[in-house]
Amino acid sequence: MANMTDEPDEQGYRWETEYERTWEVLQEDATGSLTASVQDVVLGIKRRRLLERKPNLRLGMMRHLFVILDMSDSMRDQDLRPNRLFCVLRLLENFINEFFDQNPIGQLGVITTRNKRADRLTELAGNPKKHIDALQTLRTTDPHGETTLQNSLELAAQTLRNIPSHASREIILIFGSLSSCDPGNIYDTTRMLRECNIRCSVIGLAAEVSICKTLAKETVGEYSVALDEPHLKDILMSHIVPPPVSSNSDSFLIRMGKSNENISCCS
Length: 267
Description:
Layout: H1 14-18, H2 35-52, E1 63-70, H3 84-102, E2 107-114, E3 117-125, H4 128-137, H5 149-160, E4 168-175, H6 186-195, E5 198-204, H7 210-218, E6 223-225, H8 229-238
Parallel strand pairs: 1-2, 1-4, 4-5, 5-6
Antiparallel strand pairs: 2-3
Helix pairs in contact: 3-4, 3-8, 6-7
């Protein structure tokens, strides 16, 4: 029998191949700084990600998105500075501004989860200032207790299931915990989300969690685990682009434009 150790494993991790042998392309500028070369490497990675996107895809223009934010004890950890909660809140504010800039007819809402409860911080709305002001109030809120994945998802689904089928229904879960305290079978909730065509993506802050991976896979979402703050920012910003429309979604012609009524002005 051949020794399995004789053949090196060429697959490795994706992040290892992205940054492989980068020291060969790093060059100092006139001031002796490597900043410009590092930025070129990062931009090259982003270009490759853009080229990996499949062409000729129909994207959902009318987006309805709930962001679920973990507010449990795990958000106190300081692997992100100054801690996970403050770092995520800062990045979410930028995300909301970019979301409405690229999706002007989209709507967004925020749900928080802590103490085994899920609370709706903001309803689905198209006013970015409303959401940012609400997020800023969380800076004085103490992360506490355990998160509940099932209650959070079902609270978001109560609104999203009533959205017309020609519009996208999305959830982004920012999950800092390694466990969830749920009242029932979380897999029943996963099947319900799939049947309602609700796309769930998960951004992990700690480590890969099996149920989060299953949730994203079953609902045709994306699952990523952030390595550091720049990586977390890149993951968040990747959700700015509308997702592909599912094959079973309906298509409608929606009238848009100015009214034909004549408006008389009084001098």
